[in-house]
Specification:
By secondary structure, this protein is an all-alpha fold. It has 19 helices and two strands. The protein has one domain (1-58, 65-286, 355-452): Glycosyltransferase. It has a two-stranded antiparallel sheet. α17 (363-374) packs antiparallel against α18 (391-405). The longest helix is centred in the first third of the chain and has 21 residues, at 9-29. The relative contact order is 0.14. Heterodimer of FTA and FTB.
Length: 453
């Protein structure tokens, strides 16, 4: 006991978490097979009920999230889509109408009607509308004004500000570039010097920090890596040290920590696990097409190119006319991806023939942590044992679970083998587009819509 008191707070907390997790694992392995099967089953109906209830109304305790309501929409809608379910038409229409009222008169989306537009809630609102899909949802986004909002958030440093007068960080870069890419409005003006800013945030550990001089962090590392891929500058990163850093973030519990010497947290199942989905494709993709960002001609077709492999390898609290009256060049010159190397076909349309690359992390151990330690059997997922369920952790635990289930795939268009899915095969979730964290078929529908618009 005396030696326990002499430990640091972090060491004591780590020991306590390990004890809680290992007690769950010990209980699980002492159960009969039928009970083990139940504990490993993803409680789909209960999760959908929990999520749908949250979309229809939340209690007074949620007033602290008043400026994050598009995030709540995204966390819930994306989780429901991962579970291959849909919201009813009335609820869908109410959500579109609400998000339209969050859209600022000069572009971008705020945390609620009448509030200040913010890049994080813009990302959440756009991802929500892409997840809902359909003409009404997608055409509610005023791309012309949103583009102007992104330009206003662009800083001379190359980075982006989260809001007018706000902080500049890697999260802002990712949310701005991700939104621009999804909406087919990414151009050279938005991309200029973004890579320089992100490069300045890669630390001696290999991970990426929120801003220069800060500590490497899982959420920012995902945001930085995804952004560098989207702007075709990923080869500028030290991918070898980045891979080393993220590999060592998986702990003895099976889940991931967000930073060195921090506790495991279920949300990093995606923020760290999603990095592996990107690194895998960087390693294994040959003779692929570029990520389709659109060429302004409405065809959606790109000619194949050969890409070279690298040497290696939303963060907690990220009504207009689509017709711009002409080509997208009226917004700005489209960012040219046709002659860039190291671009991944993460659209999966032409990704067959991947090399047999083993996962760089223990995907079954992560699935075990999510199902046994993060899942609440009555619905919802959580950070770790002892914490309460919430929509944020439900979203990113399920997103990480989807990534895990496909971590062994050689052909991205094929379903995973049963041995890659822990528990019953009914646990299999919908595939995501790992750059944006939206369900893949919703991304494809949006890409087609915004390419032709």
């Amino acid at each position: 006991m005396e030696s326990f008191r002499s430990l640091t707070v972090t060491q004591r907390d780590q020991i306590l978490v390990e004890q809680q997790v290992f007690d769950i694992f010990k209980t699980f392995y002492n159960l009969p097979p039928s009970s083990q099967s139940f504990m490993l089953e993803l409680q789909r109906e209960n999760h959908v009920e929990y999520l749908t209830k949250g979309l229809t109304g939340l209690g007074p305790s949620f007033c602290v999230l008043d400026a994050n309501r598009p995030w709540i929409c995204y966390w819930i809608l994306h989780s429901i889509a991962l579970l291959d379910e849909f919201v009813d038409p009335e609820l869908e229409n109410n959500t579109i109408d609400f998000l339209s009222r969050c859209q600022g008169p000069n572009g971008g989306y705020a945390g609620g009607p009448g509030q200040m537009p913010h890049l994080a809630t813009t990302y959440a609102a756009v991802n929500s509308l892409v997840t809902l899909g359909g003409d009404k949802a997608l055409s509610s986004i005023n791309r012309e004004k949103l583009y102007m909002f992104l330009r206003q958030m662009k800083d001379a440093s190359g980075g982006f500000r989260m809001h007018d007068g706000g902080e500049i960080d890697v999260r802002a870069c990712y949310t701005a570039i991700s939104v621009a890419s999804l909406l087919n409005i990414l151009d050279d003006e938005l991309v200029q010097n973004v890579g320089n800013y992100i490069l300045s945030c890669q630390t001696y550990e290999g991970g990426i920090s929120g801003e220069p001089g800060s500590e490497a962090h899982g959420g920012y590392t995902f945001c930085g890596l995804a952004t560098m891929i989207l702007i075709n500058e990923v080869d500028r990163l030290d991918l070898s040290s980045l891979t080393d850093w993220v590999v060592f973030r998986q702990g003895v519990e099976g889940g991931f920590q967000g930073r060195t010497n921090k506790l495991v947290d279920g949300c990093y199942s995606f923020w760290q696990g999603g990095i592996f989905a990107l690194l895998k494709r960087l390693n294994s993709t040959k003779e692929v097409k570029p990520i389709p960002l659109g060429d302004g001609e409405g065809s959606g077709e790109e000619s194949p190119q050969t890409t070279t492999s690298s040497d290696a390898a939303g963060e907690e609290g990220l009504n207009g006319d689509l017709s711009l009256g002409g080509s997208h060049s009226e917004i700005g010159d489209q960012h040219n991806t046709s002659s860039q190397d190291n671009v991944i076909d993460i659209d999966h349309n032409h990704s067959k023939g991947h090399a047999n690359v083993e996962p760089l992390f223990n995907s079954l151990a992560l699935q075990q942590y999510i199902l046994l330690c993060s899942q609440e059997l009555n619905g919802g997922l959580r950070d770790k044992p002892g914490k309460s369920r919430d929509h944020y952790h439900t979203c990113y635990c399920l997103s990480g679970l989807s990534v895990c289930q496909r971590s062994w795939l050689e052909d991205e268009d094929s379903p995973p083998l049963p041995r890659a899915v822990l528990g019953p095969y009914s646990n299999l979730l919908e595939p995501i587009h790992p750059l944006y964290n939206v369900v893949l078929d919703r991304y494809r529908d949006a890409y087609e819509f915004f390419t032709k618009s």
